[in-house]
Amino acid sequence: MNVAEAVGRVLASLGVDTAFGVVGSGNFHVTNALIEHGVRFVAARHEGGAATMADAYARTGGRVGVLSVHQGPGLTNAMTGITEAAKSRTPLIVLAAEVTEPRSNFFVDQAALATAVGAVPLRITSAETAAAQTAQAFHLARDGRRTVLLNLPLEVQSRPVPTPPAPVSLASPVSLTSPPPAPISQASSPSVPVSPSPSSVPASPASAPSGHVALASVPGSPGSPGSSEPEAREVARLAELLGAARRPVFVAGRGARAAKQELEELAERIGALLATSAVAKGLFRGSPWDLDVSGGFASPLTAELVRGADVIVGWGCALNMWTMRQGTLIGPEAKVVQVDLDADALGAHRPIHLGVVGDVALTARSVTALLAEGGDDLRPAPAVRDGSGGEAPAVRDGSGGEAPAVRDNGLGEPDVPDGSDPGARGVPEGGGYRSVGLAGRIARENRWRDVPYDDEGGEGRIDPRTLTIELDDLLPAERVVSVDSGNFMGYPSMFLDVPDERGFCFTQAFQSIGLGLATAIGAALAQPDRLAVAALGDGGALMGVAELETVVRLGLAMVIVVYDDEGYGAEVHHFGPDGHSLDTVTFPPVDIAAIARGFGCEAVTVRDRADLAAVAGWLDGPRRRPLLIHAKVSGARGSWWLEEAFRGH
Ligand SMILES: Cc1ncc(C[n+]2csc(CCOP(=O)(O)OP(=O)(O)O)c2C)c(N)n1
Ligand SMILES: [Mg+2]
Question: CA 615 to CA 610: how far, in whole Å?
């Protein structure tokens, strides 16, 4: 057994079940070793696609993703997808062959590439340490939530491994029979990005540490400082704040995707409404207090309710310009709190009143327990109606608790008596921000499809809102939706409902176009029981089009919707109003349906509602081939959320 084979074997023994990549001579052996040990290998048509597939697979499958690439251009082709993964803290291992001889055509400073985009560069340095280093890379990816570039120098790959490595246990990646890895570099910075240190330039390429990092210096790695338990003092401050809150709103982000139950329990106790950032869309599905996404995609009611909050808690959520609409969703009197594993995330995007470092689920549970202990002293009083149909502000009784009070829910709208609103039947009076009347409003008004609009379709073009509402009705509820970037992206994000947080995959941390189709492939493989839906613009679709062959080859019964406005709509609407020439961002018509058929898809061109009958036909049929819906969409104006995006440029 050589090093390449040992690396594949160790990853398989650690539970890797799927890897993505494009195979060249440098990663041929390691990829085959993965396959030999039971790992499914998905061959993509471009490394950019493979990287994003692995990212989406990890996100929606809750696993460590693995990508295998050739040295040099194999890695550079994958860099956009790797950047997206690193920015999203996706647990991902990039197995990259590496040449260390600068005169080679393939040479590029691979560690520097990784460092530049926020990934962690590691390297297998010897036959003796290969197994342990592989296990530690895995551990860092999984437990440190890092995107790790594991460089495999060609001359090290071929060395014989003295003893076949024993299967590695997840619990004890450092208790390997093989000796622990030598420190890979003298890197001085405790966090990435790490600058290569001149003093660490290697004498021999095989142990070349240039730019690679010492594992113990990376947050989340074994032996690194930090704990996910919040400090008791911070928990107490949060409990106090929430205990006194009258209109609390939770905004759950990526870091809260595993804490649904804990957050719902705490929200129940204090009467909080529940919203998410786009990446956590679907997390609170089923709750009558679910506001869906906060930010640019928020419906008018969600925006109104978040703006009316007196306490906003971002749980594992950056509260960035998108989620908070440049801060305009935060009312002037609102207290803002952030709970995050990463101390650096606290207050990074806007001033906060309180920051708690800790795991979201642990923190929520601790706060709930503290409020339960504190009893009514810490809990807002339940509402008492004043009989006038309106609500008055709560009044403090001076005793430390709150007198029974009627609430001002900030909506300027009278509450309705229990049971008089069909939308609210069975909804308990919750206290805090919750009321029967509000539950009724959320049920009636919160979905974008309930917001009236003038259909702007006609002359052979369908309104993208009408298209998406029709698709929402047609497509089965058990779905996973992946969205590319562009003007169109709000339509699928807001008009397509999803069953839970794993039903939405939003690879937009880098705001790259062209990742949507590969995202959908990764998500489809992670959740084979769901219908995968890819929503793309014509620009993003053509940028990532090579992976249509992958969809067909894998036999994925996927629906791919292309919102075709024959141009880079986002740029057209950005610059058009100022009278600039749009020649660089508009294109002649392309028969994307015909292209899809060429790859082996079924395809339909949609110009109005009636054309969607073909979609119903495909859904009722055997779905042997993927379906591409080439929608010729109307595009006279930019989408409502695009205004937000322009302000961020
Ligand atoms: C890789 C990359 N290149 C360029 C851009 C700039 N950009 C943002 S949106 C967009 C247009 C996307 O066009 P399309 O996919 O057709 O969607 P539309 O905006 O027309 O709805 C471009 C070029 C980007 N974000 N990413
Ligand atoms: Mg377009």
Answer: 10
pLDDT exceeds cutoff 60 at 220: no
CA atoms of 467 and 566, how far apart (whole Å) = 17
Q: Which one of 513, 545, 641 would you pick to mutate in the ligand 1 pocket, going by the greatest count of ligand atoms within 8 A of its CB?
A: 513
- C-alpha 67/C-alpha 355 separation (Å) is 35
Is 496 exposed, middle or buried, given 0-12, 13-18 or 19+ CB atoms closer than 10 A?
buried
Comparing CA positions, the residue from 42, 113, 82, 114 lying closest to residue 512 is 82
- Starting from the edge strand earliest in sequence, which strands make up the sheet with 627-632, in order? 504-505, 479-483, 531-537, 559-564, 627-632, 602-606
* pLDDT, tens only, 190-204: 232 222 222 232 333
CB-CB contact of 540 with 587 (8 Å) = no
Nearest CA, atom 25, ligand 1: 512
Residue carrying the six token digits 């062209």: 514
How many CB atoms neighbour CB 232 within 10 A? Answer: 10
Distance CA 592, CA 607 (A): 13
Task: State phi, psi for 19 to the nearest 5 degrees.
Answer: -130, 150
pLDDT at 165: 60
The dihedral sign for the CA sequence 409, 412, 414, 420: negative
Q: Is the pTM of this model over 0.90?
A: no
Residue whose entry in the numeric block shows the structure tokens 């050739």: 70
Beta strands in 516-598 (DSSP E): 531-537, 559-564
Cα-only R_g, the chain: 26
User: Which ligand 1 atom sits closest to the C-alpha of 573?
Assistant: 19
Mean pLDDT of 413-436: 55
User: What whole-number distance in Å separates Cα of residue 432 and Cα of residue 416?
Assistant: 16
The CA distance from 514 to 46, in Å, is: 12
Q: Tell me the per-residue pLDDT of 591-609, one tens digit each, with 9 for 90 and over.
A: 999 999 999 999 999 999 9
Question: Residue 456 C-alpha to ligand 2 middle, in angstroms?
Answer: 17
**pLDDT exceeds cutoff 80 at 619:** yes
505 close to 60: Cβ distance less than 8 angstroms: yes
Ligand 1 centre to CA of 55 (Å) is 20
Looking at residues 212-233, what average pLDDT do you find? 68
DSSP output for 479-525: EEEEE--SGGGHHHHHHS--SSGGGEE---SS--SS-HHHHHHHHHH
- Return residues with CB closer than 5 A to ligand 2 (ion): 537-539, 565, 569
Taking the C-alpha atoms of residue 271 and residue 432, their distance in angstroms, rounded to an integer, is 4
pLDDT at 12 over 90: yes
Render pLDDT for 498-515 as a digit per residue (tens, 0 to 9): 999 999 999 999 999 999
- Asked if 639 contacts 487 with a C-beta cutoff of 8 angstroms, the reply is yes
Nearest to 245 by CA among 271, 276, 275, 284: 271
Q: Is the dihedral of CA 301, 303, 307, 309 positive or negative?
A: positive
β-partners of residue 314 are 251, 338
